[in-house]
Amino acid sequence: MRKTLRYGMVGGDLNAFIGGVHRTAIHFDGRAMLVAGCFNPDMAANKSCGEFYRLDEDRIYADYKEMAEKESKREDGIDFVSIVTPNFLHYQVAKTFLEHGIHVLCEKPLSFEVEEAQELKAIAEKKNLFFAVNYSYSGNNMVKEARELVRQGVIGEIINVNAEYLQEYLVDDIGKGDQKMVKLSSWRKDPKVAGISNCVGDIGSHIEHTVSYITGLKLKKVAAVLDYFGQPLDLNANILVEFENGAHGVYSSSQVCVGHMNGLVVRIFGTEGAIEWVQENPNILSVTLKGQPTQIYNRGMGYVSARSAQMNRLPSGHPEGLYEAFANIYKCYISALLKKLNGEDLDEGDLDFPTVDDGISGVKFIHACVESSRKNAAWVEI
Fold first, then answer.
1. What are the residue ranges of CATH 3.30.360.10 in the chain?
2. What CATH class is the domain 5-129?
3. pLDDT tens string for the chain (382 positions)?
4. Most buried one in 76, 187, 207, 283, CB count within 10 A?
């Protein structure tokens, strides 16, 4: 019976922010070991990363296609691959590993085109492979608590959603611009690398998934205004949304809001109450019921739901954050994959990770927002 997994990584060398977060998160629970990688097309950077993690020299690959082919033929080959490349490579790398019978966890967005995302789903289903997409904030403990409260009907029927994701790091690209802001991934503004959207594709898609995860609601249509400020891709977006249950909401995503670092805030309003979660203060959840004072739920306390308690890692008052959110997604994904390989039955908790279907929804959302903005904020069906 397998107790641990072997994994490989494509992208994410030692100088990449996101690759290090993924590797750290995977190792939280000690159930998967990095054994192979193709971390950078530059062989010096690639080799440096592989050597740092003590990989065998013959498993530091110059090409991801070679990696997929050779790993699929090894008795001790990788069980899954973590894809953390820039956006333009997601589809082709994921497809290559799926076709070689290797399970996949891929960064979002899943692909440039909806048809590509649907093709990846079809291949995964045909080959009976797990395919996860890393919408990381759904791994936060108090996001899971919010989901449980909605499921229990605590705030009643959902009638409105207000969510925002505000950053400032691209504000130097407009106005006078003294270039003092710390740039993150500059490739995100290049359509050839990022796709048809920067702001919506990068952070607006996190709003879409986090709201969907908490509420269980699917979007029906959007009316969006995207601001480009002379850049090839959007830096700012304001989006009206309509859900399949008839409720409406407002999403705002921006990378030019001075004073905001990583301000994802989700507010869910129901007929009996409301919930608010703030990513920069992720260990608490604000819950307000009609006619009652606002209550502050703290992670790790005895009154939280069984699901929140199951996913808790540190005693209350010891902050959990981004690493733990990533780790929780991997915890469920790895648990599900181990059970699958061992022929065990899976429960709902094992499958509590974003799937290829969530990835498809994200790509549809991005395309609908861009189309709506081009049509002067006309409603566009998703």
1. 141-316+361-381
2. alpha beta
3. 999 999 999 999 999 999 999 999 999 999 999 999 999 999 999 999 999 999 999 999 999 999 999 999 999 999 999 999 999 999 999 999 999 999 999 999 999 999 999 999 999 999 999 999 999 999 999 999 999 999 999 999 999 999 999 999 898 888 655 555 555 567 788 899 999 999 999 999 999 999 999 999 999 999 999 999 988 999 999 999 999 999 999 999 999 999 999 999 999 999 999 999 999 999 999 999 999 999 999 999 999 999 999 999 999 999 999 999 999 999 999 999 999 999 999 998 899 999 999 999 999 999 999 999 999 999 999 9
4. 207
Which amino acid, residue 46? N
Q: What order do you get walking across the sheet with 80-83 strand by strand?
A: 32-38, 5-10, 80-83, 103-107, 131-134
Neighbours of 344 (CB within 10 A): 13
141-316+361-381 falls under which CATH superfamily? Answer: Dihydrodipicolinate Reductase; domain 2 (3.30.360.10)
Within the chain, all domains assigned CATH 3.40.50.720 are found at 5-129
Evaluate whether 25 touches 326 at the Cβ level (below 8 Å): yes
CA distances to 39, 173, 309 from 58, in Å: 14, 43, 42
Residue 160 CA to residue 72 CA, distance in Å, equals 48
